[in-house]
């Protein structure tokens, strides 16, 4: 008999899951506790802050600079290379968010690996309504879906951009401020808009 997947396993497998599962809530609470410990360290104690960052994130470069505040869901699914992340960034890391080396991230960028069904009847089922009324348990309530995000090396993500789950951005690409990236963007290009599209390539040999 096949073992039933946990909500956590379904989440990382990019399968529908229930985000209010007890295991996921506990994992998020641990992430928030790690955040509080990090924020209590004085800014001038850079070595201690780097150690604390390693406890928040799944993995990180030896020299990533993050300007406070920043926000996480779990934290442990975020993997950072060496680089710079400006103030107010959000990592909704229901799946892996991987950012390569020497990436510049502008202020208030949102990496949103997690989302919900677009159709209201899929998003708000009878079982979900019953759960909030205390009429049934949380089984078979699949209202969340998380997909990985991958940012290649040497990218610049402009301020206020939103990167959705399932997106890969190629090496050396610049994303314009305020863009909403819903699909993959190739390497070494400028992309902008809502939804983001390629404006030009930096090397003619790559299709410009």
UniProtKB/TrEMBL annotation:
Q: Does the keyword Kinase apply?
A: no
Q: Name one Pfam family in it.
A: Mac
SUPFAM superfamilies, sorted: Trimeric LpxA-like enzymes (SSF51161)
| Domain Maltose/galactoside acetyltransferase span(s) in chain numbering | 8-62
InterPro entries, A to Z: Hexapep, Hexapep_transf_CS, Hexapeptide_acetyltransf, Mac_dom, Trimer_LpxA-like_sf
Q: Which GO terms describe its cellular component?
A: cytosol
> One MF term in GO for this entry?
acetyltransferase activity
Keywords (alphabetical) are: Acyltransferase, Repeat, Transferase
Q: Which residues form the signal peptide?
A: none
Task: State the source organism's domain of life.
Answer: Bacteria
* Alphabetized PANTHER family for the sequence: ACETYLTRANSFERASE C18B11.09C-RELATED (PTHR23416:SF23), SIALIC ACID SYNTHASE-RELATED (PTHR23416)
The record's family statement is: Belongs to the transferase hexapeptide repeat family.
Q: What is this protein called?
A: Maltose acetyltransferase
Q: State the species of origin.
A: OCS116 cluster bacterium
What lineage does the source organism belong to?
Answer: Bacteria, Pseudomonadati, Pseudomonadota, Alphaproteobacteria, OCS116 cluster
């Amino acid at each position: 008999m096949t073992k039933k997947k946990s909500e956590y396993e379904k989440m990382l497998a990019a399968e529908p899951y229930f985000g209010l599962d007890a295991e996921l809530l506990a994992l998020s609470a641990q992430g928030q506790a790690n955040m509080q410990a990090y924020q209590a360290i004085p800014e001038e104690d850079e070595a201690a802050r780097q150690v604390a960052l390693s406890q928040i994130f799944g993995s990180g470069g030896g020299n990533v600079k993050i300007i406070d505040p920043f926000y996480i869901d779990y934290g442990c699914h975020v993997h950072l290379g060496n680089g710079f992340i400006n103030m107010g960034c959000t990592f909704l890391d229901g799946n892996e968010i991987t950012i390569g080396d020497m990436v510049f991230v502008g202020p208030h960028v949102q990496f949103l690996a997690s989302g919900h069904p677009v159709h209201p009847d899929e998003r708000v089922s009878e079982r979900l309504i019953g759960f909030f009324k205390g009429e049934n348990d949380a089984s078979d309530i699949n209202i969340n879906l998380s997909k990985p995000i991958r940012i290649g090396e040497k990218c610049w993500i402009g301020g206020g951009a939103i990167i959705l789950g399932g997106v890969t951005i190629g090496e050396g690409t610049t994303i314009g401020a305020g863009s909403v990236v819903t699909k993959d963007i190739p390497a070494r290009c400028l992309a902008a808009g809502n939804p983001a599209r390629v404006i030009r390539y930096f090397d003619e040999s790559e299709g410009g």
